[in-house]
């Protein structure tokens, strides 16, 4: 049983000539017999024919696909992209038309924009308190164990290096003051921030990155909720509140572990260490530690959230954003620590004179 088939012509344009009147002429060759009304219009006679065209014809790439039903070829065309080399001489590509800013550049810009949005919304009172309390519980109580454990061992390692040298010099009464100043000004804020950046910052970046690639943030916008109000601001506020408290706990435990180690191993009395620490410490040392902790908390949360909401590329992009968020947070912590130390502690110090 034969099936009725309609074959379509393959039209090949070649030998374009420009006539005197400015019109284009094309030699047209029909590569397949006509069975439609084109036979009557074009008066097909099997030979190449010349037709006038008022303008250029967009080039097509032609493919011949064999039909197994009726053994007649059928043509399908795919538009060929215009080559820039065929552009008119007067049209030149725009300067820096193909340039795009590096990813780290617009991510850094997103950090500044996100920080500004969080500040504005906090001042306006647009705070989702339920999410803030949930994040505060997560950043604070759930991070106490690892922070205290890290601070205790860092304090004991620091004590070993100081006590053995001060004992040889006969400066046992200065050990407590040196430890107190070192813990309050540098060790406790920085060590606590590093632990929180590794634990909480990575979690923030992974969560928001997963929500971004799965379009959950777009769903929040459709439902009328601002992702900054609902997701970012609670995390920033919770981190800025919890980190100073964690720093204070780490300072207390670090001093306690140092005093116990000095008394048990090197024979320096706990009372001597605590008295020396009390003489050397001032209220500004504790206040500066709290300020540093708040700044570190803001850096960790904003950088992690910014890297999360700018995640691209699915699961691989989430992993890359998480890793880079922690690294950038640590770099920001060290830079901010240097800047704040230069601002808070200038000139020659005299606090150790009281504990000699």
TrEMBL record:
It comes from the Eukaryota. Its main location: membrane. The keyword GTP-binding does not apply. Keywords: Membrane, Transmembrane, Transmembrane helix, Transport. The chain crosses the membrane at residues 241-274, 295-313, 325-345. It holds the Pfam family MlaE. GO terms for cellular component: ATP-binding cassette (ABC) transporter complex. It is a multi-pass membrane protein. It is found in: Membrane. GO terms for molecular function: phospholipid transporter activity. Belongs to the MlaE permease family. NCBIfam families: MlaE family lipid ABC transporter permease subunit. This is Protein TRIGALACTOSYLDIACYLGLYCEROL 1, chloroplastic. It comes from Vigna radiata var. radiata (Mung bean). The gene is LOC106771873.
């Amino acid at each position: 049983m034969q099936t009725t088939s309609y074959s379509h012509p393959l039209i090949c344009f070649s030998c374009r000539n420009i006539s005197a009147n400015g019109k284009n002429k094309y030699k047209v060759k029909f590569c397949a017999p006509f069975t439609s009304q084109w036979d009557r219009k074009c008066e097909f006679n099997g030979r190449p024919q010349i037709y006038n065209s008022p303008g250029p014809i967009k080039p097509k790439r032609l493919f011949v696909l064999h039909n197994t039903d009726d053994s007649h070829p059928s043509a399908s065309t795919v538009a060929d992209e215009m080559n820039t080399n065929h552009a008119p001489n007067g049209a030149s590509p725009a300067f820096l038309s193909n340039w795009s800013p590096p990813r780290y550049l617009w991510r850094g810009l997103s950090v500044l924009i996100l920080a500004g949005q969080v500040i504005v919304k906090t001042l306006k009172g647009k705070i989702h308190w339920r999410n803030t309390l949930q994040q505060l519980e997560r950043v604070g109580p759930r991070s106490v164990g690892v922070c205290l454990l890290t601070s205790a061992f860092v304090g004991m390692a620091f004590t070993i290096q100081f006590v053995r040298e001060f004992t040889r010099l006969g400066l046992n009464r200065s050990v407590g003051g040196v430890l107190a100043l070192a813990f309050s000004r540098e060790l406790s804020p920085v060590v606590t921030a590093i632990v929180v950046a590794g634990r909480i910052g990575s979690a923030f970046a992974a969560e928001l990155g997963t929500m971004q690639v799965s379009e959950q943030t777009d769903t929040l916008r459709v439902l009328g909720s601002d992702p900054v109000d609902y997701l970012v601001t609670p995390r920033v506020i919770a981190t800025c509140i919890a980190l100073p408290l964690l720093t204070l706990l780490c300072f207390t435990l670090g001093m306690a572990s140092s005093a116990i180690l000095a008394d048990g191993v090197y024979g320096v009395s706990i009372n001597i260490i605590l008295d020396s620490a009390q003489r050397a410490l001032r209220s500004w040392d504790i206040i500066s530690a709290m300020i540093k902790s708040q700044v570190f908390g803001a850096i960790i949360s904003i950088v992690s959230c910014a890297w999360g909401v700018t995640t691209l590329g699915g699961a691989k992009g989430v992993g890359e954003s998480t890793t880079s968020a922690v690294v950038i947070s640590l770099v920001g912590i060290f830079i901010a620590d240097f800047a704040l130390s230069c601002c808070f502690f200038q000139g020659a110090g005299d606090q150790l004179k009281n504990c000699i």
